[in-house]
Write a structure and sequence with these properties.
Elements lengths: L10 H12 L12 E4 L9 E6 L6 E2 L7 E5 H6 L15 E5 L6 E5 L2 E2 L11 E5 L2 E3 L3 H5 L4 E8 L3 H4 L6 E7 L7 E9 L4 E11 L4 E18 L9 E18 L2 E14 L6 E4 L9 E3 L4 E3 L11 E2 L26 E16 L4 E19 L5 E3 L5 E3 L4 E2 L2 E15 L5 E20 L19 E21 L4 E23 L13 E2 L3 E19 L2 E12 L2 E2 L8 H8 L6 E2 L2 E14 L4 E21 L4 E22 L5 E14 L4 E2 L7 E2 L11 E14 L2 E12 L2 E2 L9 E2 L2 E11 L5 E8 L7 E6 L11 E5 L4 E9 L1
Parallel strand pairs: 8-11, 14-20
Antiparallel strand pairs: 1-2, 2-3, 4-10, 5-6, 6-7, 8-9, 10-11, 12-13, 12-49, 13-14, 14-15, 15-16, 16-21, 17-48, 18-19, 21-22, 22-25, 22-26, 23-24, 26-27, 27-28, 28-29, 29-30, 29-31, 31-32, 32-35, 33-34, 35-36, 36-37, 37-38, 38-41, 39-40, 41-42, 42-45, 43-44, 45-46, 46-49, 47-48
Length: 812
């Protein structure tokens, strides 16, 4: 039996980008938001660094835009060796990032609102914007980033300007553009804890008076991303990973009225397994519960030692009975059950900016993402058999080899005015076409412990393919009206129509499982349809009391389309739907947000001191949730009836009288609660209503305090010291019961010491992340294959431990 897997042709990338280039004369893109050096009006004032953001799809200063934004510049990211989205959390309170998972590949959440890292059928509630393109796959989060100019984190619903998803916020990442003069930069670092090295570099400059180019690349190799528990029966006793990212940027300015900017990026990630930093907590009974299979006919000792915070993971290879016979074609075939992961991503973006007149400009953003990812791992999270001479034989069960293929094409057009009078507007349209294929052979029953399939020789229970096609169209418009010189009223509305069609096929089912409890081999669902439309309005009032004080109040709404679950198994939910011909149980509803915020942004003492604050209140209806039911060995997709969040965000920055010393701090208070009926399985087979319980991943208090100090030692030598301390008050890590695991409060400490030339020609650095080696839990879920009523072990996804880098960099 061969796998029915449709590969996406990489030639689609070339076709779409060529078509977009042909449309270049019609469209435009404002210049990438830059941190610019601006001179204050008073001659005696120092030159200050003003941060520009595009929170409303136009260039505005961070202090003027009436949106709660945290901006992190490229210098800060480089200074702390931040090249993973997960490392940004120490700078943005209430931002939670989980990297890993065989489906979407990652999870972003803000103010306690996020989406599943398992199901790639979900869009992220925190939209991920990469160089102006909303990216549906979190695999780019998993791959990391480099050569970044700025990261902006926008909190609260952002549907008007960012469209799809964005019910909880936006994480916007902008890569660096070509420089006006030729410049070459190189960076190399070695990390002592995980034994990894990183090499990166770029060359940037003008090819002509009108055309600039930037070539950048980064390679990262980590030998000990995960160290396994001694005695783990696995070929790789240390799980490593490698990442390569290469990017080409072309910037063409043939006239004052036209600009084109093109980016093409290739990403390759390889690792020794998809599970990531997942540990097992042995639960209240304190016992490593056996892997319980086939109604107890097979019991495999778990093997792990119940030390859940020692950063020694028990990730075994597949049991010999389950390893060899993978339905083909599959890269897992021939690997003898040894976990691995491979991801390749092509990302292209083409932007144009055309000034139609002195007051009207047209913007076009064309994006294409082409991804092929495959990984293999065993999700029993334990298992070993006794072998000869005191050794052990791998006992990994619940293995799967998910193949994720994605082709996403997006096109956005925006027409914006720049009148001298009190009235201005923006009109836009957005279109997305996306095809996602989730093709996986799985061991949900592990029937091959009784014997391989007598017909095919395969040792997997089934092969299942979900193909989901999405088509989204939206139109939006906004206006800005200056009621007076100091009072601005702005607002707008976005209409969205989204359609999804999914087909499910099961080309292979193990002979021993064929019967009424499973769908038949060769099963095909036919088209399963979902459609929804929405109108999302927004209005903001901003009052500029003086040049250094802005007060604003906003009413906002958000929308994230529902869809069809892609985690249904040939048993359980899928077989029941197949019997009735009604697949509505696989459909989850759209997520909506409504609420508002009020705040101010201020600067004092000659703009040396910045103080910004926002108070917010939002209600999320039909919040999309996916959890794992360890009893039925089934992911459960549902909609939480209602989640209400409210709180306050504070941000301060002080350029102290001490030359070169700057202090900054952030503080967030968050109250998050399920305020309507929300029934969940509860982990023991019964339903529990979570109404009244606090939301997951929602710390009551979170914040950070940082300092940066540049100390001149001579005209050609500068010492730089910086540190960051982040605090989190703790949070519930799951949403399955009233007594889910609670992560206690914790601190994270980062530091940097460097010495080099003041203009960055060379620099030597020692960088420490998470210096106290604090391990905390991000999410939790039930461990599969527990004996009902006896086993209580659960899976904890954790952060990475301490990292210490020695780095050298050059720029000339």
């Amino acid at each position: 039996m061969t796998r029915l897997h449709a590969r996406i042709a990489s030639g689609g990338l070339r076709r779409v980008l060529l078509c977009s280039a042909a449309l270049g004369g019609l469209a435009a893109m404002p210049g990438t938001a830059l941190a610019q050096d601006l001179q204050d009006e008073t001659p005696e004032a120092e030159t200050e660094r003003v941060i520009i953001v595009q929170a409303r799809r136009q260039n505005e200063t961070l202090q003027e835009v009436p949106v709660t934004v945290t901006a992190i510049g490229g210098d800060t990211l480089t200074r702390y060796n931040i090249d993973q989205i997960a490392d940004v959390t120490s700078r943005v309170p209430t931002l939670n990032v989980q990297v890993g998972g065989s489906g979407s590949g990652g999870q972003l959440s803000l103010r306690g609102v996020g989406s599943s890292n398992i199901s790639a059928a979900f869009d992220s509630a925190v939209a991920f914007e990469y160089d102006g393109v909303i990216v549906s796959s979190m695999r780019l989060v998993q791959a990391g980033f480099f050569d970044v100019e700025q990261i902006d984190v926008l909190r609260g619903p952002q549907s008007l300007f960012f469209g799809k998803s964005a019910t909880a916020g936006v994480l916007s990442l902008r890569s660096a553009n070509p420089t006006s003069r030729w410049e070459v930069g190189m960076r190399g670092s070695y990390e002592f804890e995980e034994k990894g090295y990183l090499l990166s570099g770029y060359i940037s400059g003008p090819l002509s008076d009108t055309l600039g180019i930037r070539l950048a690349a980064q390679f990262n190799d980590i030998d000990e991303f995960q160290k396994l528990q001694p005695g783990t029966p696995a070929v790789n006793q240390e799980r490593g990973l490698t990442d390569f990212i290469g990017r080409l940027t072309l910037d063409w300015n043939p006239s004052d009225r036209f600009r084109a900017n093109f980016k093409l990026q290739y990403t390759k990630n390889e690792n020794d397994g998809a599970i990531g930093t997942a540990e097992i907590n042995c639960g209240a009974n304190g016992v490593a519960d056996a892997v319980f299979l086939l109604g107890g006919a097979v019991r495999i000792p778990a093997g792990y030692d119940c030390r859940a915070f020692d950063q020694r993971y028990y990730l075994t290879d597949a049991a010999p009975q389950l390893a060899p016979g993978v339905p083909t074609p599959s890269k897992a075939a021939g690997r003898n059950g040894v976990p691995f992961g491979e991801t390749e991503i092509w990302f292209g973006r083409l932007q144009f900016d055309l000034d139609l007149s002195d007051t009207l400009s047209l913007t076009s953003v064309t994006g294409l993402l082409n991804m092929d990812a495959v990984d293999f791992d065993c999700y029993a999270y334990g298992g070993r058999f006794p072998g000869p001479n005191g050794t052990f034989i791998p006992g990994g069960a619940g293995c799967s080899d998910p193949i994720n293929s994605l082709e996403q094409y997006t096109q956005e057009l925006r027409l914006r005015s720049d009148f001298d009078g009190p009235f201005n507007f923006m009109l836009g349209a957005f279109y997305e076409d996306r095809t996602f294929i989730f093709d996986t052979a799985q061991q949900g029953v592990n029937i091959s412990f009784l014997g391989p399939d007598p017909v095919t020789g395969f040792t997997y229970d089934w092969d299942k393919i979900h193909t989901t096609k999405t088509e989204a169209l939206s139109f939006f418009g906004s206006v800005m009206f200056d009621i007076t010189d100091k009072l601005e009223l702005s607002g707008g509305v976005r209409w969205t129509d989204e359609k999804k069609v999914q087909t499910i096929s099961v080309p292979y089912l193990h002979t021993f499982l064929q019967g009424p409890a499973f769908v038949r081999p060769g099963f095909f669902s036919g088209p399963i349809n979902f459609q929804d439309d929405n109108i999302s309005p927004e209005v903001t009032l901003r009052y500029q009391a003086n040049p250094d004080l802005n007060i604003f109040a906003s009413f906002k709404t958000g929308f994230k389309s529902g869809g069809i679950d892609n985690s249904a198994l040939p048993s359980n939910s899928l077989s029941q739907a197949a019997l009735s011909g009604d697949f509505s149980s696989l459909i989850y509803q759209s997520e909506k947000a409504k609420g508002g915020e009020i705040g101010f942004k201020s600067q004092w003492a000659g703009r040396d001191f910045t103080l910004n604050a926002t108070a917010f209140y939002y209600v999320f209806e039909d919040l999309q949730v996916q959890n794992f039911n360890a009893v039925t060995i089934q992911f459960v997709t549902s909609n939480a009836g209602e989640l209400t969040t409210k709180g306050v965000d504070l941000e301060t920055r002080w350029r102290t009288p001490v030359s070169g010393l700057t202090l900054s701090a952030n503080l967030s208070y968050l109250d998050s609660e399920y305020t309507d009926t929300f029934l969940q399985p509860g982990g023991q087979g019964g339903l529990v209503d979570l109404k009244g319980r606090r939301g997951s991943q929602a710390p009551e208090w979170a914040g950070n305090l940082a300092f940066d100090w540049a100390v001149p030692l001579s005209d050609n030598l500068e010492l730089f010291l910086s540190g960051n301390a982040a605090y989190n008050d703790g949070y519930i890590t799951d949403e399955t019961s009233l007594n889910d695991y609670v992560q206690p409060s914790f601190w994270l400490l980062d530091a940097n010491v460097s010495i080099g030339h003041p203009d960055g020609r060379w620099k030597l650095s020692l960088v420490g992340q998470n210096l106290t080696d604090k391990i905390f839990v991000i999410t939790t879920g039930g461990r599969p294959f527990l004996q009902p009523g006896v086993g209580d072990d659960f899976v904890m996804t954790q952060n990475r431990g301490r990292q210490v880098f020695a780095e050298v960099s050059f720029k000339f």
